[in-house]
Amino acid sequence: MPCRNLTYTNRDDWTGIARWLGKRKDPDTKVDTIVRDILADVRERGDEALTEYTRKFDCASFETTGLRVPEKAIATALEKIPNDDAAILKEAIQRVRDFHLNQKETSWWTTAEDGTILGQMVRPVDRVGLYVPGGQGGETPLISSLIMNAIPAQVAGVESIAVTSPPRKDGTLNPYILATAALLGLNEIHLAGSAWAIAALAFGTESIAPCDVLAGPGNIFVATAKSQLIGQVGIDMVAGPSEIVILADGSANPQWLAADMLSQAEHDPLAASILVTPDAELAARVREALTPQCEALPRCDIAAKSLESWGAIVTVPDIETGTELVNLLAPEHLELAVADPWPLLGSIRHAGAIFMGHTSPEPVGDYFAGPNHVLPTLRTVRFSSALSVQNFCKKSSVIATSPSYVAEHGAKIARLARLEGLEAHARSMEQRNK
Questions:
Q1: Which one, 217, 314, 417, 430, has least CB within 10 Å?
Q2: Whole domain around residue 407: which residue ranges?
């Protein structure tokens, strides 16, 4: 299996690795222009534009009247999936909800002897729009994306949540998406995809009310649309292709490591899968395991291209040096596939989600454990975090200063205002001390 062999001994080796990985995020200016035109078109023509784009790209017979999925179709969707699958979805939903309940913040207040009250109010946004990719022809629905995006919004207390997802060729939505929505208690689903769906959620149309925050993964058109809307609505993040870094020692199982690398490689030809290890024998055995495992995958072509372009096995002198490289890579997913991962945890500064030990593979975080799988990519984890309840909240400062506070500090405040040349600010304070 083609996969780069690299060596990292110290920071002098980082320049070449960074230059190679940096090519994953080269901008496509043609997409920028296309998306800008789509956003403007939907803003101008609303449902009419949504219908035209949907007919062109998803369902040739689509009608505007079919934009919203009837609530009855959502409510009865559970009848169309196996009971065992519904039970798994229920358990996954509960685990994700339990985790996010711990993130909920409360308003707080402080008081001073002079009667001054300061504080912060935490409030949910009014309305959220969630985008759910339909998958390959609507037959590989991203139900985990719906769960991971809806639950933190619900825990935040958002009262109005709209979901958009592209219809299948027959104008319907995969029953698993509908069933998951029913289990989540969501009843507003619209059939629209790509950049035009993002535009509709942001600006509103005749059928879709505008939203305050948008969240959910998608292709380059979805990501570009969200990036162009920054400043007009809140967004979760501008996510790039998926990535995993595995830091492993000689105790790791090479078959497991190969499987974990492929779990990201099958996502996208731009996905990056990188093994970092001081054990040359382990590196060789993982390389040997990649080819037969990849060839057995339904998405072998995608995984093989990903490994060829963005896969690597990096040998390092020791685990400490490997940890240094991990922090430079700042990966979306990090597996610590070592005999005792806990002593290493304090050395990890930059990673979206950290999977501890040999029995914590990345897919447990994607689907079931509870933490959110919407994570920063392309090294943005250096300054950003996983999707959380906080993405769907806003905070207001509360300031109630007493007469004695103004009397004591008014002259200081006026002086600061005059230093900045803002005389009216200064006089606003002095008026109260006359």
A1: 430
A2: 401-431
